Structures are given as structure tokens and as C-alpha cells.
Amino acid sequence: MANKHVNAIIVGAGAGGGIVAKELATKGLSVVLFERGEWPNYDEHPNDELISQRTEVLGSPFGPDHIKNPRTLTYKGGSKQIVTPIHGNYNNVAACVGSGTVSYGAMAWRFMQEDFKLKTVYGSVEGSTLDDWPITYEELEPYYEKAEWEIGVSGDDTQNPFAPPRKKKQPMPPFEYNAEAKVLYDASKRLGLHPFPIPMLRNSVPNNNREACIRNLTCCGFACPVDAKNGTQNTVIPIAIKTGNCDLRTGSKVVEIMIDDRGKATGVKYFDKDDKPQIQTADVVVVAGAAIETARLLLNSKSRLFPNGAGNNSDWVGRNLAGHAYTGAYGLFDYDILDFAGPGATIAWCDFNHHNPGIIGGGLLANEFNRLPYLYTGIRPPGSARWGKDHKEFQRSMYHRTAQIVGPIQEMPMYESRVTVDPEVKDFWGIPVASLSGDRHPLDYEHCKFLSAKAEAILKEAGAYQTWQSIGGQGGPSGGQHQNGTARMGNDKKTSVVNKNGQIHEIDNLFVADGSAMVNGGGFNPALTIMALGFRVGEYIAKNFASIRVT
């Protein structure tokens, strides 16, 4: 029996897709929301570090399945490696209802005004495709506010002098600093810096009929035991389903967008829970699979008018792949500086994000999420033992005494940093897998050195008796945490994939609503920006549905 035609298909139930589903379903449109994973269940994967989304030693609790979903990396010189689907991505990627918003650290940053006009502020950068967004911060600001209030954010931007302008405060108060943050706060104030509490997509007080955060030790990389961490799985997706207009199909793998000879998207081909091939037709298709899988789906969707993939006649789909180069410093203290109050990260600084001589962009700094023992095994002063008796003694004696300050440097986008589809390696369903290739821009490393030095200075002022830097931004391909850029938005179809409304150039009923549309990654965790874009794209489709639907 054929599937009933619907108004809209949404591929991916994460930060962007879940929001678009709610926006369309509540406006009366019939929606099929496809998710390749299942509903997340805390009780199935509680607090085991070896099967957390951050380590994947024994697999990832929220998917995707490592065996069925490989990827490939191609290095300089042409050598190729088959890797797991979240290789190098830590908690950024998942395959479940809510996707990465189930296990993320839940920082809730608005990008700064400068992040939307980097080329205007800094000029052209040799070797980079750095560009301005086709929208401004002011245009996205109402959707940031909508995300903060509908999904739920704790914070207080009045304490951050670098915060962009806002019309309405965050709905919940910020979290109290943990023991480490209190020490770092005093030290950074002595240095003339401007510390403030991190805005978080988690309940600091009871909100939305769910409990307040209990400051659980295990948070980033894990689901929340009391459901106080706010993702699309416990906010907008249940609202969409409750309307009766949204059919959520879990365990469904979308493998192709069907494009007809008029250049219209007519639906998708997918494999259902039983791995049987199916077709679902719709008036509008929205892709929200994150930057790598969105690019892969577009590239695998070949047709007469788009022989190189949907929306790819200008060869820009999959290009400009970027993530965040994480960089910072560690410090050892002669007392227990950590109290392990969850989530660990509570204090931040934006002093080094924009307008620093010689630096393009920059990044925030913050103390880190709680590190469990397995992750801690990789934290050592240079030259110290990495195994044996000395290694174990360091682990025992310094576990509570090691502070970290770290942050994301926004990478310079590059044309040759890209996602393609592998001509040889296929997934469980016989579909060409995503292949990552390219390198980082040399400025990434220079920017990371700058930010790491600032982090080390705070730790030294705080009284650390030994410090060392951990400098990121080296080697490629990119596409680690916070991947973006592979279907970037722009006004010129020759140098972008979607327009300012997330609409594929030349396919006006095919949209992108995830990080792949972002022109750059900013110096911040991008979850709130992806959510804001989801609200904006969903609103546009709902308002203009009659003119963009298949006829």
C-alpha cells in the first residue's frame, strides 16, 4: 500500500528538523518527519563513560550504528581511511529523535553581529571562501528569542558586555558557578577580563512541565536522567505530534530526494524499519541531517536536471566544510579545585571573540564539562608518563586538581574542504557513503595559539603551579564538532547552495534547515543558531506554502 501524499517531508529530527516539523504541523500542514534512529532512552544508557556519545569506545548510545554507517577520510597524498560515523565529532552527531540535542553540552549562544558579516569586518582572506551571510543578526534576532523561550534557556546576558543586543531576557536565571569557576572568576577579574555565566539549554528552575537540572556529574555526552536538558525531543517534536499533523517515522533511512523533469522535489526514497525500500511523496522537502549527511543526501540525489546532485550544478554542495578547532590550556593545583557539580562548564569569557589585533573572528573561552576517568587518561603535562605506575599515580592524585579552560575557534572556510560521496565504499543499504577531504587554513592554528595563550594566562593567575597549552587547528580534514557550511546560504547561486530562506537555488520546494546552511561557524557552539534558523525556515515555508508547493 502506497504512502499517502503529504504537504511536507522533513529529513532529520534534530535541532533544525524538529523545529521545522513543529512550525509546519501547528500551522495545519501534514508532515512526515523522518529519523534514522529511535527515541532516546536514558535507562538503556545511563552513565557508562565507555558508551557515551563523547568517547564511543564501546559504541555510541544514541547512534548512528558504526557498522551500518561508515564514512571515509581522504588525506593529503590521497590515502583513504574508513572511519566510524562520528569519528572526531564527539557529542556533536547522533541518530535518534532529538539527535545531538539529547547528549550535547547544551550551551545556548547567540552569534555576535560581526559573525554575520565577517568579510565586511575583516576583508578577504587569501585561501579562504570567507563571506558575509545574506541575513544580519538583526534579522535572526527574533528567532533566537523564539528558540530561547520555546526550547528553554538559562542565562543572563546582562553580565556579558560583549553580548549582541536583545529585546527580551532569557527565560530562566543562570546556573550558579561551580568551585572551579569561582576561582577562575576572581582570577580573570584581576586580569581585567569579563567573566559571566554560560547560557544553557537546560532548566535552572522547573520549566515546561519538567524538572530543574540536578547538576548531575554525567551530562555532556549523556542523556539527562531528569529530562532537564532541553532538546527538540522533549519540546517541539511532542508538540508537532500532538497536533495530529506530524507522522514521526523512526528507524527510517532516507537515501534520495526525487527531482522531476521540471526541477521540482516530489518526495524521497527511503528504507523503513524493516529495511524495505519505500517512497514518500510531498509538496515540500526539508533536509536537516547536519552538514555531512545533508551534503551526502543532496549529492546522492541525481536527476536529469541535476546530474551531479540536487542543487549542485555550480559544484558547491559539500564544499566549505568547517567545524570548530577546540583549543585551550590545563592547570594543576595543589588542592581539589573540582567539585564535579554538573555539567562542569559554568563560566565563560567573550573578550577574545572579535576585534583582537591580527585575529579574524576568534572564539569564546569557558571551563570544561566534567571529564570522567577515561577521558582524563589523555590529559597529561608534556613529557609525563602515559602508562605504568607514574601514570596511575597522576590519575589518582590529580583527578580533582586539574582545571581546564577551552574554547572553539571558528575555522576559516575553504573551497577544497569538502564532503563528497565515496565511489567505492557503501553503507549497509548499498548507498555511497560520505567522504571527507581537504585541509585547514593556516590561520586556524595561529588563532588557536592566540586563544590557548589567553586560557593559560587565566590559569596562571588563578594559582596553577603548572600549566600547559593544548593547541588545536592542526591537520585535516575538518568537520569535527559543530560542522557547518556544506550547503551555505547566499544570494549568488554560483557561490552558494541555498538562499537566505534556506531554499535551494533552482529547486524552490527543497529546503535546508541545519548547520550546513551556515556561512561560518562563529566562535560559539552553534545549537541555538541552528534552532533559530529552523524557526525562520519553518515560518517561511508555512507563510509561502501555496506558492512553493508542487503543482
Number of structurally distinct domains = 1
Number of helices: 10
- Tell me which CATH architecture applies here: 3-Layer(bba) Sandwich
Major beta-sheet overview: 7 strands, mixed
**CATH fold type:** FAD/NAD(P)-binding domain
Tell me the distance between the termini.
Answer: 23 Å
Q: Strand tally, please?
A: 17
Rounded average pLDDT = 95
Shape estimate: globular
Oligomer: single chain
Give the uncertain stretches in residue-range form: none
Compose a concise summary of this entry.
This protein has 551 residues and is an alpha/beta fold.
Describe this structure in words.
This protein has 551 residues and is of the alpha/beta class. The protein is 21% helix and 17% strand. The chain has a single domain, classed as FAD/NAD(P)-binding domain, CATH 3.50.50. It has helices spanning 17-25, 118-122, 137-152, 179-190, 236-242, 290-299, 373-376, 388-398, 442-461, 527-548, and strands at residues 6-11, 31-34, 71-74, 80-83, 196-197, 246-249, 253-259, 265-271, 277-287, 324-332, 347-349, 365-367, 402-410, 418-426, 432-437, 466-470, 510-512. Strands 1, 2, 6, 7, 8, 9 and 17 form a seven-stranded mixed sheet that branches. The chain has a six-stranded antiparallel sheet with strand order 5-11-12-13-10-16. Strands 4-3-15-14 form a four-stranded mixed sheet, covered by helices on one side. Helix 1 (17-25) packs parallel to helix 5 and helix 1 (17-25) crosses helix 10 (527-548). It starts with 5 loop residues before the first strand and ends with a helix. The mean pLDDT is 95.
